[in-house]
Amino acid sequence: MQKKLPETVDFLKQVERNACFEGVWPVSRFERLAEAICDTRGDVTVRLKFGIRAGTQCLDGHVQAELVLRCERCLEAVTRTIESDFRFGLVSSEDEAELLPKEFEPLLVSGTEVSLVELVEDELLLSLPIVAKHEDACSALLQKHKKDEGVQHDTYKPFAALKDLMG
C-alpha cells in the first residue's frame, strides 16, 4: 500500500499491479469543490484499490472529508462529514459498459494517465447534500422567528366600525 497519492495514474497498469493507494489531499487542492463550500481548510482521506473482481477490471474507492458548507436556512457555516464508497468497472467502450455487472459503475479509460484528483473531486461533489442545513434551529434570528410565530399580534381591522352601522 502506497501512502503517497499520485495525481495521475494509468488505471490499466494499476489493475495489473493490484495497486492500492491511501493518503490525504488538502481540500484546497480541489478547485471545483472549493466553489461549492465555505472553507477549504482540512483534508480529504482517500483509499483506492485496483484489481479484478468478477472477471472485471475495477477500482474500489472510499473518500471522506469534513467540509464546511453554507446552511440554506440561515446562510451560516455548517460542518458535515461527506463520505463516498464507489466501485468502478474499467471499460474502453460504451459497448463494454453495457455488459458490466450491476455492482459496477462504468468508468471509461484508455491506456493513458487519468487524473485521480478529478475522480475524487467528482465523487465528493456527487456526495454533497442537496440542501445543507443545521440539525437544530440555526441561529438566534431563526429562534426568535419561531418564538414570534406563536405570539398573537393585534391586527388593525379598518371595517370594524361598519359592523356597528349595519346592525
Question: How would you describe the overall organization of this protein?
Answer:
The protein has 167 residues and is an alpha+beta fold. Helices cover 28% and strands 34% of the residues. It has six helices and seven strands, in the order E-H-E-H-E-E-E-H-E-E-H-H-H. The chain has helices at residues 11-17, 31-36, 94-98, 116-127, 140-149, 160-166, and strands at 8-9, 20-26, 43-53, 56-70, 77-91, 105-108, 114-115. The strands form two sheets. Strands 2-3-4-5-6 form a five-stranded mixed beta sheet. Strands 1-7 form a two-stranded antiparallel sheet. It is elongated. The N and C termini lie far apart (91 Å). The mean pLDDT is 86.
Q: What descriptors fit this protein?
A:
two-stranded antiparallel sheet, 28% helix
Poorly predicted residue ranges: none
Instruction: Report the mean per-residue pLDDT as an integer.
Output: 86
Report the end-to-end length measured between terminal Cα atoms: 91 Å
User: If strands are numbered along the chain, what order do they take across the biggest sheet?
Assistant: 2-3-4-5-6
The fraction of residues assigned to DSSP E strands is 25-35%
* Sheet with the most strands, sense and barrel status: 5 strands, mixed
